[in-house]
């Protein structure tokens, strides 16, 4: 080990370098090479990896002695990383900060040799020695030989050539220019997406691929014959060089990394999500008939499918929402067909019923049905929930499967039916009455709303602002529908709006109005055509605009002809464009593994958390070209929160992560964690929440009612997915949820307040006007002051006053009524 500390080693290196003339022609690469080699050889012939931090520290000092473009280039290209023997950054180097942000003009050409600095030190040292011994031979002009003279190189047998390379002793001589070009070729090979994808065929994963290329580079450059090297130099970093190197690289990997290949093969096989239609052998054994009812909203497609559903001896209806399942449940029973209800939070069993209405996540692939109806089949392409529709389509054991939706997924349904061998029948529908766009908008004035209007906004705040404005400046009364409301409250608001004998003649709603409710809407008015997607404000997708606008003028309502327009004139062109454009063809549909598949995948790893397991699954899973892995950000966030809850099995964590919780609501997340903690300790899971005293008097209380209902709904969902005795208060929770839903309905009807936003974090306690104030650290105050470069020229007193830690002498005199003589500063608050 080097005995001197890094600064001393650096000073010695600088002194020695000043005596040398090595840096005159090519200062940067030569100096970097010299520093690296010298530091790795100082008093340590073995050159252990522990010296690398000192070398890196020394190289950092170069920024004070010359241009530092190479490290700047490494930073810009994101190739910087620490030695593999240490998982923590060193105290004198912070990898998350760029100390060279003020330097410009870096040149990637100078990166050729220096990039080896970030790689394994053992291979690096040998390459440096070889380079020093070889660079005296040859000339720079040799590499310009005609490419055609080396044509035989590309036609070599890779297996035979690899064996030839193994038999060659190291020490082949080549020029510095050839050496740099070869290094550049291998850098391009390591960054090649084509080579990385091809490596998957021999089970070299994307994470291990750079390491394998690094080892292969060290092997190849030391043994490569001159004719092959000259040919590679002549073609340079290109697709041709990649295709020449890859077969040799494959042979190298198969021989050198058998254990890594076996491990990755086992991981890939356990995470293989290809051919999902083979997951359901009983459904494949049936000769199913798939009927696609394809058409826009208000075209009668769902009505025809439900007629066949009620005619069947045994059937199942699968909808996207609890509200829609409840609506079908009520409608079918009212027509004399016994039907049960099954959702994540509610189960109603009707005696002698052979039909069931359920949400699509609750569909059973074990029961055999005569007719199954899958509503809103275009939701297969949903990035979060699409897997549920895909699973239902592939796994339902039914003689007839009726799909209802728009034409966007028709082509991919055809492809799936070709794979499963099912018969596909297509029924196309047209809208009963065309949707008319009113050229005269509301001109930005909500006083122009009329009875039967539905004003659509895309945030809770906007919904309440619109309701408040309409009721304040017009004689209309508004009903409200948005996603955070319970299904019971939404139904109550919808019935209130549909009833012609009351004063509630205007509906203000979010995109939740797009499906699941039959409403007497005369005209859909878009308050805006942009919304927040969780990351930024984006235009509302055209398919969603069509879905929402199509809610106007439903057949059987008092407004058979539908109208649509916008509040602002500027949005009208985008509305017309969305309605005119055809449905976008979906290329891929969602997929997510079952618990049994995740359990099999987890068997390949030890001592990993469930969140880490999901990351590994995402990185290693394989899907067919017609599918994509659904986003699981919601699951990961819940899994991260539950990591501190011990005693949960893998299946328990899987079930808790799928619980219907708003991850942006800290109170709901807190209760989910409490439920999991009690369950892990084999204790009865309590609700630990009292009933509200009455309806909400302001928006904060309304938000609290919404959160409480969500917590109760989550408790009911968990009671259906775990042992019922573990959640003994399910009946009480259902009763409380019903009462809170009624309170929410009353609160909305009487709401006349400005909306508030839900707290993303726990609110801070308000500061007291008077009383004790915790003193701040003088050391922290000093550090804060000196960190501000713009105040460096000011006196200490002025700087303290500037950052709020002191007051002027005049202010002190006014506050305490004494003279300023002898007073330097106020220590109050320090």
By CATH, the architecture of the largest domain is named: 3-Layer(aba) Sandwich
* CATH class label of the largest domain: Alpha Beta
Q: Give me the number of helical elements.
A: 33
Poorly predicted ranges: 1-6, 21-34, 36-55, 61-150, 759-779, 789-793, 816-830
CATH topology of the largest domain: Rossmann fold
The number of distinct structural domains comes to 6
Radius of gyration: 35 Å
Shape: elongated
Supply the helix-strand structural class: alpha/beta
Describe the structure.
By secondary structure, this protein is of the alpha/beta class. The chain folds into 6 domains: 6-95, no CATH class; 140-270, no CATH class; 276-428, P-loop containing nucleotide triphosphate hydrolases (Rossmann fold, 3-Layer(aba) Sandwich), CATH 3.40.50; 454-580, Rossmann fold; 658-762, Methane Monooxygenase Hydroxylase, Chain G, domain 1; 773-830, no CATH class. The protein is built from 33 helices and 18 strands. The strands form 4 sheets. Strands 4-3-5-2-6-7-1-8 form an 8-stranded mixed β-sheet, with helices on both faces. A hairpin with a 4-residue loop joins strand 3 (339-342) and strand 4 (347-348). Helix 26 (633-641) packs across helix 27, helix 28 (666-680) runs parallel beside helix 29 (699-721) and helix 29 (699-721) packs antiparallel against helix 30 (730-749). The two termini are 46 Å apart. Mean pLDDT is 76; it is low at 1-6, 21-34, 36-55, 61-150, 759-779, 789-793 and 816-830.
